[in-house]
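Quick one, T. Sequence first:
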Amino acid sequence: MGKKDNDWKDRLGVMYSTNPDYSYQTTDNEEPAMELLPPQQQKLRLRIEKNGRGGKTVTVISGFQGSQSDADSLARTLKTFCGCGGSAKDGEIIIQGDFREKLIAKLKALGYSQTK
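Structure tokens:
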């Protein structure tokens, strides 16, 4: 069974419109493209947080400038290096546990020379 002409309506979540002049909006809401700065120009700051996290300690890396996919990639590398969990959201990379010294050494090895 082949695809119908208006199969794209199903993907938009539109059932039916009685207005003959109705035009379906097909623009994608992608995040604005943020340019990734080279690692040596990034000023990353590490801090330890415990408040609002159920008593668990996390290492928060802030100051990363790049797209969300770039932040996810760096977070994945750091999580693998530390052998723990974490995430990247709201412009911050969160690593579960107190790995401040270990992360500073790894980030400097990756070329992030302005890390503190």
